[in-house]
Amino acid sequence: MLNEIMQSIPQVLIDGLTLGTVYAVIALGYTMVYGILELINFAHGEIFMTGAFIGTAILIVLTGIGWVSALPAIVMLITVLVLTAILTGLLGMGIERVAYRPLRNAPKLIPLITAIGISFLLQDIIRFIAELKKGNYIITGPSLFTDQILIKASSISSIFNDASIKTSFLIVLVTAVIMMIGLDIFVNRTRWGMAMRAVAQDRDTAALMSVNVNKVISLTFFIGSALGGATGVLFAVQYGTIDPYIGFILGLKAFTAAVLGGIGNIRGAMIGGLLLGLLEVFAAANLTLLSGGIFGAEYKDVFAFVILIIVLIFKPEGLLGKPVVEKV
Length: 328
Prior knowledge:
Layout: H1 2-37, H2 44-64, H3 67-70, H4 73-100, H5 109-134, E1 139-140, E2 148-151, E3 163-166, H6 167-189, H7 191-201, H8 203-208, H9 213-239, E4 241-242, H10 246-261, H11 266-290, H12 300-314
Antiparallel strand pairs: 1-4, 2-3
Helix pairs in contact: 1-6, 1-9, 1-10, 1-11, 2-4, 2-5, 2-9, 2-10, 4-9, 6-7, 6-9, 7-9, 10-11, 10-12, 11-12
């Protein structure tokens, strides 16, 4: 059994890193908003989904007018990423202004219920538009990066099988890492990032120190939603087919990743996402073997939520989070 598990490790690492980077970038949106507002923005998964649809729609339009075949694929991807990030960032700002800001001083349960309502609203709006335009809410977009690269893992050791990756894997991985590093630098080394950290630490004191709290919160929603939307494009490029419900389960798993790493901790969200992706793909590849055929790969989703329960029981602050002391 151990030999069979080891044979699959190279492909598990590749697929796990791909999925983990998606979880990590989505988790950043959750953890940024929670760090400042202490709000779990459950609509964030649907912003990711909206980004996937916007990016796919742009690609379909550009394919129709011949630009996709005329320009390098990487140029098209960057163009679509930037446009989608701006649009989903503005969407996030709009949601915050209309749905969350009026409830900022309300009991925490009310904004949470509002976030769930926004989530279902976005799902139905995107489904309605997709069915109106395409006749089906399951959409397959144009393929940009389809070449396969063979990784000769067997040359390292005979216990490993060879692995294959699509060129889109490299694009997704590099782009996601750039976004995560860029966000980390922005939050820790810029004036706006300092303002975000100040508002996260003490909103009232930051306001007394001339920090425009409303602008900081709007910027936080813009950045988190822009990253989520751009990740939706990367997901569509990697996996090809999207539907209005992909954001629900992916959003829950990204939230799990944020809790695993330490909700409110940006670097923790990155680490949590990568760990969760690797664990889930490992489960999908080996669960049948480990359970003697009792459980199949379809039970991999259970892993995410078992991890969430374990973390909440034994280390509720997460891997990199710090215990919060209630102020008396």
